[in-house]
Task: structure prediction
Amino acid sequence: QVQLVESVGGLVQAGGSLRLSCVASGRTISYDDMEWYRQVPGKEREFVALIMWPLNTYYADSVKGRFTISRDDAMNTVYLQMNSLKFDDTAMYYCKTRRASIWGQGTQVTVSS
Result:
């Protein structure tokens, strides 16, 4: 069974950048499609980005052009590079394996306006 651990998020000013990591253990995720989701209190968890094996990527309209999902299979890690952050990007961010639907514990990203 794979375990996913997201890096610590943090507080960033609007317009700034932040990179999240999702490190997998237990088995390789080299052939998994991987996703990032986010959730704010009182709302449903929403899709952010997907990387399909090997390297096809898809994004929510709200982050397209600002966020980039990538992977380093040697490190068994998936990344989410977030640029031009907005206040509305404030949320708990989760990584997830797409097929088996295994979630990380989440990491908080707060964007100050």
